[in-house]
Amino acid sequence: MSTPAVFAGTRARRVVVVGGGIVGLATARALGRHGIEVLLLEKESTLAAHQTGRNSGVVHAGLYYAPGSLKARMAVAGAQSIYAYAREKGIAHDNCGKLVVACDDSELTGLARLAERARANGVPAHELTPEQAREHEPYVRCVRALHVETTGIIDYPAVCRALADDVRAAGGELRLGVAVTGAESTPTGVRVATRTARAGGASTSKGELTEEVAADALVVCAGLYADRVAAACGLVPEARIVPFRGEYFELAPERAHLVRNLVYPVPDPRFPFLGVHLTRMIHGGIHAGPNAVLALRREGYTWRDVDLRELGESLAWPGLWQLGRRNLGPGAREVLRSLSRRQFAASLSRLVPGIEAEDLRPAPAGVRAQALRRDGSMVEDFLVQTHGRQVHVLNAPSPAATASLEIADHLAAQVEAVLAG
Q: What architecture (CATH level 2) is domain 95-152+242-372?
């Protein structure tokens, strides 16, 4: 993509991007390629500190998403663009493919539904017999499987470092440890209120430096705090962010031979998450997980991480109770799996027999920023809202990392429209 020229004597357009995860960084890069002066603000002292740096590193093919949705279109295109970017930058990646396995006859309908969705979305995927499945994964157990060719693994933190380098090379600036506390649209731009932030903190503290930054437009990719930042900027978000923790284990080294690449279950249609699966990591080892339990704070990576204010906000949201009421059984199993390593191992051994509790080693957890409506429905697609000269990403869970370069182009086009208006 060529960069439009910025002619001498004209003032460069300036855009503030909030969020140093992969979506924010990719958006900053895309804006820089449009000849826009970019200032990226991240409240943490490092980039990719939360969702981007704590996921399982999977490049998703676009298998699960409703045909025609932003998720489906951007995941399919994003798998290609993120692989191309990794090749260009020398970033570790492997387009290794994955198996989705039906463990018994009750899951065959769900597997067939996935195969049909793959065809609708243009995802290369082939149904396999048990014998054919074991050519890919010798230790897997199934009655039928789906091999998804374009799924793979990648080093997302390395992608983020490369994106940051691209932003700087285009003349952009990254400021770490700076949080946005609000913004106000004006007829000609946006005034953005900031403060220096303690790592992991989201509340103001006496003595911290505050500053107002002027810009022509604002793009917010705040992840776990997307709704809170949006509200502070004068926008009424369509949904509330409710954090769900995904807990991981790693297979003991002597058991890593049981999995060659990626093995997934057929998702339970009654539950909005994919279920625990097995994933080879790009730098070695086999990740197992994640489950999905309510996090007790937005950055709550263990049961001990509790923020009473944030937990109260989640519990006060009617949508959470509606979601829980509709998913009592699956939700209870997720909590049991969180509290019992034996139950976690039992779920994995349905896919690959022989995995026992003693084969699992704790690994860092992640937290998913799930946008949830008041009626308990989960926002299924990417969700972007605008407010004056502001563009807010309200929902960008998986496959956002895979689709980050596509999302960035989409947001850059919206910024151009805002600036033109």
A: 2-Layer Sandwich (3.30)
Q: Enter the pTM of the model.
A: 0.93
Query: For residues 9 and 28, what is the distance between their CA atoms, to the nearest angstrom?
Result: 24
- Per-residue pLDDT tens for 233-279? 999 999 999 999 999 999 999 999 999 999 999 998 767 678 899 99
Tokens in use for 88?
């260009």
**Which tokens sit at 26?**
């990719």
How far apart (Å, rounded) are the C-alpha atoms in residues 241 and 396? 11
- Number of neighbouring beta carbons within 10 Å of residue 56: 23
Task: Give 173's strand partners.
Answer: 39
Beta-carbon neighbour count of residue 409 at 10 Å? Answer: 19
Sign of CA dihedral 109, 111, 117, 120: negative
Q: Is 256 exposed, middle or buried (0-12, 13-18, 19+ CB in 10 A)?
A: middle
Beta bridge partners of 262: 279
Q: What angle do CA 26, 96, 346 make, to 5 degrees?
A: 100
Domain ranges of the chain: 14-52+158-238+380-420, 95-152+242-372
122: left (phi over 0), alpha (psi -120 to 50) or beta: left
Closest residue by Cα to residue 22 from 395, 420, 403: 403
Fold annotation for 14-52+158-238+380-420: FAD/NAD(P)-binding domain (3.50.50)
Q: What is the pLDDT of residues 320-371, one digit of tens each?
A: 999 999 888 888 989 999 999 999 999 999 999 999 999 999 999 999 999 9
Tokens encoding 169: 């090379």
**Tokens describing residue 208:** 């911290």
Query: Do 25 and 407 form a contact (C-beta atoms < 8 A)?
Result: no
Cα separation values, 193 from 40, 164, 183, 229, Å: 14, 23, 6, 11
Q: Using CA atoms, how far apart are residues 31 and 416, in angstroms rounded to an integer?
A: 9
